[in-house]
Protein: High-affinity branched-chain amino acid transport ATP-binding protein LivF
Amino acid sequence: MAEPILSTRGLTRDFGPFRAVDEVSLSIRPGSITGLIGPNGAGKSTVFNLLTGVLKPTAGQVALNGQDVTGLLPDKLFALGLGRTFQIPRPFARMSVLENVMTAPLGQIGEGILGPFLHRARVREEEARIRARALEVLDFVTLAPLADHPAGNISGGQMKLLELARVLMGDPAVILLDEPAAGVNPTLTNILIEKIEELNRQGKTFLIIEHDMDFVMQHCDPVIALAEGRAVFEGTAEEAQANPVLLDAYLGV
Ligand code: ADP
Ligand code: MG
Structure:
């Protein structure tokens, strides 16, 4: 197998006495659309939080492109090419859709410690560049017509596309999506799938948490399953559907 683009070894996270993620070792193949499935409470979102630096592991390591990135903060990981969306998007409701995309963390000039010393014209130039890029990205996710709408007024599905737009501002090599299709109408789900596949053809790797088995069957390979904090399965989506261990996990047997 090719060197994994993202991997974990013995990744573990406790919340008090409760072990939410238990020695999970994953290898994500570059260029794949890998599905991460498992019943509610299995630890999927916690794994994402550990991969993206939102939470620190109790034990274990995370590597990106073979480099140990355990414990790095989300902004730093984003700068290194790891982007993610959240299960529940929380845009800045009163800011416009465009402004929400423009605030994606990019290590923007004008905000760092050098900011006060930079020429104003330089900052304006940088802002114009970020605006142009944000409009381009909004156009890609089909939200350009809503650029000036308050982000609080768009639908749940449009918020998921907005999240993807924010992620794409950083041009990440690896994109983690937490339940992108949950609560999204079929039209927007199809747009999202089309965009994921287009980005994947351009070489981006995806790790996607999804409950909708149709989505997983049609778009994810391989599939990794978690149950009670442990990785219990890796294989194709077809194998996942036929696997007794997984059926047990879902039925809580
Ligand atoms: P999934 O995304 O697979 O549904 P989560 O990763 O959200 O599962 O949660 C896994 C388990 O860890 C659940 O039992 C959940 O209640 C618990 N958990 C998650 N986050 C926290 C937290 N911040 N504090 C305490 N328990 C948590
Ligand atoms: Mg979750």
In short: The chain has a mean pLDDT of 90.
